[in-house]
Design a protein that fits this description.
With about 350 residues, this protein is of the alpha/beta class. It has twelve helices and 15 strands. Helices cover about 35% and strands about 25% of the residues.
Length: about 350
């Protein structure tokens, strides 16, 4: 049996539009791509580190330069994926190991996890913060996609309401909103009260993370359900949110990969919380890895492939918004010929 051998590359993904949230704007997404070789096979992984949590592509690469992967059995996941590895670095290795195991077994990852690919949810299509003209153009581009997530949190109450009013005048599908910690608790209550008439499915992370009692305050005063993101990084964060929110967002890069995400999903179920499976602006590697566990959740926001101009990989596809999993072994992700 051969030794596991890990190499990492950096990947730049230019975006279709500059992507703006309450914390800033990006025009190019930066990721770390993992190539894990073993017994003539290669497992693909990816990490999209989040600067807010003091992680970066450079820190992920530096970690494995100082801590090379050692072992000759990819099935020993508990030994290879210890909590000593920072979450973003662990995420890329976790995905690569699951891809490698699936390829060794000759089965898609969803089958190894015992999941039904027919039960994938619809995904939302996210539009970033923009002026009215830009927002209207993005809504037109989305067309009849059934679910939209709208980034808010950077303007006045009047601006936030006007944005949703414009969108609802042009769009009849499901609307979700995400303030990315952009409001105070009082502002959130005020904005959400005004937005009730536009049939909003839920509001994601209205206030700065770390204040569950303020989330409870909002939840008790809003008819629009409240979902966390920055407040819910791992399964261990969920007990303190019990009774304060209606649901949580799970992202592989925050949980440390697929294993951490599944643990978080089961914890949320035990606490009676609804679950959204999210993503970063990323390639098909990370998006497809998350999609394999999407039959476990209520909502999906796996729209990274919509947001990038040219992805060097193929993976999931969409049927009127419904996630369609590839049926190849492992993740089922393939590198496109001639795209680099």
């Amino acid at each position: 049996m051969s030794q596991l051998h890990l190499t990492l590359d950096t990947l730049e993904l230019p975006l279709v539009h500059p992507f703006t949230i309450a914390r800033g704007t990006e025009s190019v997404a930066h990721t770390a791509v993992f190539h894990l070789a073993w017994n003539g096979l290669e497992g693909l992984g990816e990490s999209v580190p989040i600067p807010r949590y003091k992680e970066s592509v450079e820190s992920v690469i530096a970690y494995y330069r100082e801590h090379p992967v050692r072992g000759e059995d990819p099935y020993l996941l508990d030994e290879l994926l210890t909590n000593a590895i920072p979450p973003a670095a662990r995420c890329g290795l976790d995905i690569a190991l699951h891809d490698l195991i699936g390829k060794d077994c000759g089965k898609p990852l969803y089958r190894l996890l015992g999941l039904d690919p027919a039960k994938t949810p619809l995904t939302s299509f996210t539009i970033g913060i923009g002026d009215m003209e830009t927002t209207a153009r993005k809504v037109d581009e989305i067309g009849d996609h059934p679910v939209m997530k709208v980034k808010l949190g950077s303007g006045s109450v009047e601006q936030e309401i006007a944005t949703i009013e414009l969108i609802r005048s042009k769009y009849r599908g499901t609307i979700r909103i995400d303030a990315n910690e952009g409001w105070s608790a009082e502002q959130a209550v005020s904005v959400l009260a005004e937005l009730e008439r536009f049939d909003i499915e839920f509001c994601e992370q209205p206030i700065k993370a770390g204040h569950p009692e303020q989330l409870r305050y909002i939840k008790e005063r809003s008819k629009i359900p409240i979902v966390t993101d920055e407040d819910s990084l791992t399964a261990e964060d969920l007990p303190k949110l019990y009774g304060c929110v209606d649901g949580i967002n799970v992202k592989l890069v925050k949980t440390g990969g697929i294993r951490g995400a599944i643990k978080m999903i089961h914890t949320a179920r035990a606490l009676g919380m609804k679950i959204m499976l999210g993503c970063m602006v990323e390639s098909q590697i990370s998006a497809t890895a998350a999609a394999h566990i999407s039959p476990l959740v209520d909502w999906a926001d796996i729209d990274g492939p919509f947001l990038t101009k040219e992805d060097p990989f193929s993976g999931i596809s969409y049927d009127k918004g419904k996630i369609v999993l590839p049926d190849g072994a492992g993740l089922g992700v393939r590198e496109k010929a001639g795209v680099a």
